[in-house]
């Protein structure tokens, strides 16, 4: 594998490498998205039984899962902002609102 500085240099001078790198980053974002679902669905160790036999929430495990999810969400938004980033395009938002106002869904 090339070093980081070599890869960064290749990104600036080799269009084919840049395109393949972008595809790899998109695939990485999709993989992280799959991990989000696995983490969210995993309830193992979320609860425990205390010494009196009562079921208690294991807040440390739940908070760690939340951190893992939030970290991956942040990375995904940076790797593929058009696909997974927050909508901040005010023009697009205004178009959506304008269309909704002009053609309300009357039931």
Key traits:
mainly alpha, Arc Repressor Mutant, subunit A, two-stranded antiparallel ribbon, 5 helices
Question: What's the layout of helices and strands?
Answer:
Layout: H1 4-13, H2 15-41, E1 47-49, E2 55-57, H3 59-79, H4 81-84, H5 90-102
Antiparallel strand pairs: 1-2
Helix pairs in contact: 1-2, 2-3
Q: Proportion of β residues?
A: 5-15%
**Unreliable sequence segments:** none
Rounded mean pLDDT score: 87
**What is the count of β-strands?**
2
Please describe what this structure looks like:
This protein has 107 residues and is mainly α. It has a single domain, classed as Homeodomain-like (Arc Repressor Mutant, subunit A), CATH 1.10.10.60. Helices cover 70% and strands 6% of the residues. It contains five helices and two strands. It has helices at 4-13, 15-41, 59-79, 81-84, 90-102, and strands at residues 47-49, 55-57. It has a two-stranded antiparallel sheet with strand order 1-2. Helix 1 packs across helix 2 and helix 2 packs antiparallel against helix 3 (59-79). It is flat. The protein starts with a helix and ends in a 5-residue tail after the last helix. The model has no long low-confidence stretch (mean pLDDT 87).
